[in-house]
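Minutes, project huddle
Topic: does the predicted pose make sense with 2-acetamido-2-deoxy-beta-D-glucopyranose bound?
PN asked that the exact inputs be recorded in the minutes so nobody has to dig through chat later. Recorded below.
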Amino acid sequence: MSILNFLLLSILLTTTVSAILTVDYPFATRSGCGHFGYRDLLFCVNDVLMFHISSGSYRVLDIDYAFQTLTLSDPAMSTCNRILRDGKGNGFEVEPWRTPYLNPAPDNIFMLLGCHAQSPLFQGFPGKHLPCRNVSSMGCEACPAWTSSGSYKSERHTVYGLSPPDCCSVSFDSIRSINLTRLKCQGYSSAYSLAPIHVSSPNSWSYGIRVIYSVPGDFSFCRSCEATGGTCGYDADAVSDLCYCGGWNSTSNCDKGSNIISSVGGQLLPSLDSIFGGLWICCLLIWTSVWQISK
Ligand SMILES: *[C@@H]1O[C@H](CO)[C@@H](O)[C@H](O)[C@H]1NC(C)=O
Ligand SMILES: *[C@@H]1O[C@H](CO)[C@@H](O)[C@H](O)[C@H]1NC(C)=O
Ligand SMILES: *[C@@H]1O[C@H](CO)[C@@H](O)[C@H](O)[C@H]1NC(C)=O
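Predicted holo structure (tokens), as shared on screen:
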């Protein structure tokens, strides 16, 4: 095999994989487009789609519109093969106003690594009341590197408060915020199961943060807007739904003349030009995202 062939093969096998991510309702990368619950959330940085919340920025690995999930990756997150204990991981926390729209999936597990005995995780949870537990048959025990490395010697003879486990796995629901600084942890990992497939080896788990999104009213506003030729968006000042109907805006859909909110001289009968105007404002965006596979 020539060196060139070898290099090409290496690149194919080990470094990159690309995927097309479609940014569609309720998401958008432009202000005023999509649903207001997802405003200022997705950004395209050097052709990579990024997700930004109060705990930090994450790479978007996938958006599944059928199952209403997003899969995110934090480069400072550990996997079973790659342990990072520098305390730099984002963890996961969303702004309180965003919680009705975004939450980690119930079958997503967070493994908190090297947490200090004084961590709030272990306070008020003596013995069996510890929040650490297996989630969707995934847990810390699956990866020896999580439970036996690190600076804390584990002496498993007493109440966890005095001698905490090296790895504590939790579901997001049990603590509502993964903040490594506040929890006094050195690192974390996050994985999810692709139910109903039962995966026993942590090497074949899917690493990343699986987030579920939901749109209040089950998309009815947007369906009605699009069915009448409009494009879905929101009013950035009033933070309310807005249907772009070309030359005019509506708070319901493009058939409802009475709900027009438009500047003086807004027209009632949209011209062909203005119909395409709405699409022009909030066009569908397709990004190509290339990321490293750390395997
Ligand atoms: C995490 O907790 C620390 C310490 O309580 C705090 O200063 C920081 O703002 C928190 N981070 C986020 C994203 O809330
Ligand atoms: C998780 O499951 C493993 C194996 O099934 C078990 O050994 C371990 O005690 C469980 N851990 C917790 C925290 O429940
Ligand atoms: C419709 O709403 C958008 C965003 O708020 C605004 O920029 C535009 O001027 C509005 N159009 C009319 C005709 O009022």
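Observations noted during the meeting:
- The mean pLDDT is 79.
- The longest helix spans residues 3-15.
No decisions taken; revisit at the next huddle.
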